[in-house]
């Protein structure tokens, strides 16, 4: 047991530097795995590992371990390694039963959790050779910030007269007509904007907005002191940090000089993470967990006051689109 422990520790030190693939001691065998895999909390993740050989394998055996701070954890012991996986991995791991016949000894890790992040090593041995490779499992960044979720309720007193806010303050819809609403200094009168009731001066805050299939929208945060009357431009200099879709074609980050976003497919739900201590505002594709754009909220604005969630149904001149923007209350990857 002691000899095996030191063997695994030596492997841990050797594998601490991620590499895309490692080769066996001979030219006849090669073990290959990706340098990095990104997992999503609550979903199953495959850590790929394949064997290529020029001759039949002689009594091959596979062992998966996790390397954490110089220590190793048994994930999927087999063959000469014997033993059982650690309790937290029981029932959560599997390797294809025909793996050596097909060359696929990938590890499936079920119901991935944040604590699963780390370096995983696949060790394959035969009678006359041994080789290993490692893969770093990272948890999609979005899922690390979900516990900062907070309630966001739209403030009807700030909404442009064309905008209708639902009774629960969770939806905003462009009615296409100027409605009779009370005039007040908080209300936007020239742009289809609305702010939330909540404002933040410290801490970390996360919320999501469903944009559905709307062809135009903008969302992000605004300083409490932003101009509410007359024309204005969305940009940090004016106290707005936002991204949006213009006429169903291009996604933009509304920087002082607009930045076109590289987006694959159509965005349906956006995650917004306001990290005031780090002075960052980050936007995510909430379905894929991918970062869309990050603003430095310390730069470019003379506006003051709280940071307030902000929504817009797009330019008043755009074709009327009755689909609402919706503050998401329950985060679900499949909705």
UniProtKB/TrEMBL annotation:
PROSITE patterns hit by this protein: B302_SPRY, IG_LIKE
Gene3D superfamilies documented for this protein: 2.60.120.920, Immunoglobulins
Keyword Glycoprotein: yes
Entry keyword Cell membrane: no
Localization, UniProt: Membrane
InterPro entries linked: B30.2/SPRY, B30.2/SPRY_sf, Butyrophylin_SPRY, ConA-like_dom_sf, Ig-like_dom, Ig-like_dom_sf, Ig-like_fold, Ig_sub
Main subcellular localisation: membrane
Record key words, sorted: Disulfide bond, Glycoprotein, Immunoglobulin domain, Membrane, Signal
Superkingdom, taxonomy of origin: Eukaryota
CDD domains for the chain: SPRY_PRY_C-I_1
The protein, known as: Uncharacterized protein
Organism: Corvus moneduloides
């Amino acid at each position: 047991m002691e000899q095996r422990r030191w063997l695994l520790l030596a492997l841990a030190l050797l594998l601490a530097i991620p590499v895309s693939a490692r080769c066996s001691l001979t030219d006849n065998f090669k073990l290959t795995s990706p340098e990095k895999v990104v997992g999503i909390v609550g979903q199953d993740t495959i850590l790929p590992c394949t064997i290529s050989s020029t001759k039949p394998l002689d009594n091959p055996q596979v062992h998966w371990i996790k390397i954490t701070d110089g220590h190793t954890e048994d994930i999927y012991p087999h063959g000469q390694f014997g033993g059982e996986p650690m309790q937290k991995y029981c029932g959560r791991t599997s390797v294809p039963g025909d793996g050596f016949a097909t060359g696929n000894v990938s590890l499936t890790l079920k119901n991935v959790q944040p604590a699963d992040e780390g370096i995983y090593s696949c060790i394959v041995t035969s009678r006359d050779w041994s080789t290993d490779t490692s893969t770093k499992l990272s948890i999609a960044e979005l899922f690390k910030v979900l516990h900062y979720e907070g309630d966001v309720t739209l403030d009807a007193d700030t909404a442009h007269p064309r905008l209708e806010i639902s009774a629960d303050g969770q939806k905003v819809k462009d009615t296409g007509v100027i409605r009779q609403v009370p005039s007040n200094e908080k209300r936007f009168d020239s742009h289809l904007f609305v702010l939330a009731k909540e404002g933040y001066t410290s801490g970390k805050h996360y919320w999501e907005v469903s944009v559905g299939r709307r062809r135009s929208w903008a969302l992000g945060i605004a300083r409490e002191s932003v101009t509410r009357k007359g024309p204005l431009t969305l940009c940090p200099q004016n106290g707005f940090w936002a991204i949006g879709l213009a006429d169903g074609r291009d996604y933009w980050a509304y920087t002082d000089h607009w930045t076109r976003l590289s987006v694959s497919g159509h965005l349906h739900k956006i995650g917004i993470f306001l990290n005031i201590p780090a002075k960052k505002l980050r936007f995510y594709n909430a379905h894929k967990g991918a970062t869309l754009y990050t603003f430095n909220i310390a730069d470019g604005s003379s506006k003051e006051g709280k940071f307030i969630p902000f929504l817009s149904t797009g330019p008043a001149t755009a074709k009327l689109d009755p689909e609402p923007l919706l503050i998401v209350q329950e985060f679900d990857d499949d909705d």
